[in-house]
Write a structure and sequence with these properties.
272 residues; alpha/beta; 2 domains; 5-stranded parallel beta sheet; 15 strands; globular
Length: 272
């Protein structure tokens, strides 16, 4: 490794924090020391640890972990933007999830984080016309994590999928930067139509647990969708919608809903 590469490696604050936290975990929980060393400490850079960890999760009888890792390494090398997005996602989970005490916990154990990173690889494969492999990864992620994201769906940076079980994202969906979504979110179509048929989720949106957004509609930036809502029409920016079907019930309540993660709708005109 060149001196320049070595300097770049140790100018990566997320990677340095992960290594420090991994060392602490290995000392505090010796039974996990081998796992932590193999997953984090033996690797030279963040992307190497990521590809190893994902390959161990996704590899199996049909695609060995070794071959899976070769594919992941290829994608991460060809598209450095993937690694940048992964770091932004990891920061988003740490900053927004009060249950996340350190980067290491999300990196090793949080299936929402792992699923979106596997999707980023699958999306790269899709754009490279390697559709069978992309669909294979989609299927494996669905089996492992109960999260189904079509490999053609487009995601920005700083995405948090909290808990994540039951999330479904359709082929032509777009999720912009800095979006948070909880378990059971469905970004789906409305029938058998073809073409551009799935929702567009703009920057800073918070999608509550069990919310369903259907059709080629837009959720405007920095808006909130209440838990259990069914959204069938586009939502303006900086609004809160809730209900079945969803209606605008007030403003978003803050400047950055996806970061505040406040799901309490205080300005609604109804009582329980």
């Amino acid at each position: 490794m060149s001196i320049v590469a070595e300097k770049l490696e140790f100018c990566d604050p997320i990677w340095l924090a992960l290594r420090d936290q991994a060392n602490d975990l290995a000392k505090a929980e010796p039974a996990l020391a081998s796992f932590v060393h193999a997953t984090i400490l033996k690797h030279r850079k963040f992307e190497d640890a990521l590809s190893y960890h994902l390959a161990k999760k996704i590899g199996g009888e049909d695609l060995s972990p070794m071959l899976a890792r070769e594919i992941f390494d290829e994608a991460l090398e060809a598209s450095p933007a993937i690694g940048d997005a992964v770091r932004a996602d990891l920061s988003a989970v740490f900053e927004r999830d009060p249950a996340c005490r350190r980067y290491l916990d999300a990196f090793l154990f949080y299936k929402g984080f792992l699923a979106i990173q596997a999707h980023r690889i699958a999306h790269w494969l899709w754009t490279e016309d390697r559709t069978p492999m992309a669909l294979f990864l989609q299927s494996r992620v669905s089996e492992l994590f109960a999260i189904d994201i079509h490999p053609a769906a487009r995601f920005g940076r700083g995405i948090m999928m909290d808990h994540a079980t039951g999330i479904v994202v359709g082929e032509t969906a777009v999720v912009d930067d800095d979006v948070s979504m909880l378990h059971g979110v469905n970004l789906g179509g409305t029938g058998k139509e073809i073409g551009d048929r799935h929702p567009k989720i703009r920057r800073g949106v918070l999608l509550g647990a069990g919310s369903t957004i259907l059709g080629n509609i837009e959720i405007g930036e920095y808006s909130r969708v209440g838990a259990g809502s069914v959204v069938l029409k586009s939502v303006p920016a900086n609004c809160t919608v809730a209900g079945v079907p969803a209606k605008i019930i007030g403003c978003a309540g803050c400047e950055r809903p996806s970061q505040s993660m406040n799901q309490i709708i205080e300005d609604a005109n109804f009582e329980i």
